[in-house]
Design goal:
The structure is a homodimer of 238-residue chains. The first copy, chain A, has eleven helices and eight strands. With 238 residues, chain A is of the alpha/beta class.
């Protein structure tokens, strides 16, 4: 059992996943923690620009990373970047190790909370890149649970999401957090009861500004971390 | 250029190094960040117990990790665990990629600060495991700069250092931080003008309690991160 992390998109989101894997693991000593190898090599063409038709495809770099992780005989691969899941099927086809889809991990987390609280899933605000919004992974899964998805409008994407996301990539977490907090507020004002943070740059930024919206948010990165811990607990080694 | 991190000792110290590499890198976008692959596999026999003669040697697991990192053609290897440097020469001999010694990285940082402040290096309090204290890496380097090293006494090691360090490994950062902050206070009370945090579990713990002693501390993990960033800036790829 060895979790392979195809990271670097951005590097801080990868560190955030590694941190959350540790936080989610019940451990009394070093050796109880999940074994992970993280490929945190950010020299991968920009995913948002590729999908917008303004940049080269990241697929060759992603395939090279999958190949490197498989050389280490990883048992599973996770990708702490929602947008990169656009190439999920190509990567899964090229990998001996199975890939865990971040939207599946997030849905498992949403289902569990909804079940435990005995509430119905109603309006969910989705914070994600244009690429992730267009792909429909989250909207389809929420609809199957009877939930309705609210997405940012184009003006909100341009004013809040895109500059917030790229601020995180420059290390300006506070600045990014202020922008993304305002986007969260807009979705809540329009009736969102829950938010799903479906871009891995978002949770560190909202945390940096201590956003009150974190309390009603599902964090896709934390959900992916929980999926890794569950695989570790299921394995013979744990 | 690809930094290989031989991590997992503990896993949180590895994440702390990755975070500090990002913080120390001037970057305007993902692709400007240092490419890193982190072997964060904590199933390595306890280093402190091995050196105390009460546990098995971690050397075979460390050599296996070095071999895995070399399979990925890393250009340098760093180890965010001071105590594991006991096996540094064996690992360096087995590695095609050169290893950067954490005490060398820390000394470069100390030298630079001393030079910039125009002060003399006088009494330095050293916070480290028994194994690191006994090895003398730091004391010898400080003496060469004219500095005198203060180390914790055996009672302080047993009361503060060892339980503080193992609390971090259990994820109890606050509890660990309180203990390690008291150790820092003891060394300052005995005349230390600077502290060197030469165990990678210590900086996250002191940060968790917002210890005032961080202001007079050299953080070996951050120094190692700076050494990685310098290698990246020196390379053609940066």
């Amino acid at each position: 059992m060895l979790i392979g992390v195809l990271g670097g998109m951005g590097p801080l989101a990868t560190v955030d996943l590694l941190q959350k894997i540790i936080e989610e693991t019940p451990a009394a000593r070093d050796q109880d923690h999940v074994p992970v190898v993280a490929w945190n090599v950010p020299q991968i063409p920009d995913r948002q620009r590729a999908l917008a038709g303004t940049g080269e495809s990241p697929l060759p770099a992603l395939l090279a990373a999958v190949s490197q992780l498989n050389r280490l005989s990883v048992s599973h691969i996770v990708i702490p970047c929602n947008t990169a899941h656009h190439w999920f099927d190509d990567l899964a086809a090229a990998s001996a190790a199975p890939l865990i889809h971040i939207a599946d991990a997030t849905l498992a987390c949403v289902k569990s909370v909804v079940k435990n609280q005995g509430t119905e899933l109603q309006k969910i605000g989705l914070i994600a890149t244009h690429g992730t919004l267009a792909a429909g992974w989250y909207q389809q899964r929420f609809a199957a649970l009877g939930g309705e998805t609210l997405v940012p409008d184009e003006q909100e994407m341009t004013t809040f999401f895109v500059p917030g996301c790229y601020a995180v990539k420059r290390g300006e977490l506070h600045q990014g957090g202020l922008l993304l907090d305002r986007l969260a507020q807009r979705l809540v004002d329009r009736g969102a009861q829950w938010l799903v943070l479906a871009c891995t740059e978002v949770p560190p930024a909202l945390t940096a500004v201590n956003s009150p919206y974190l309390d009603i948010s599902f964090d896709a990165t934390r959900a992916l971390a929980q999926a890794c811990v569950q695989e570790w607990q299921r394995s013979d080694n744990a």
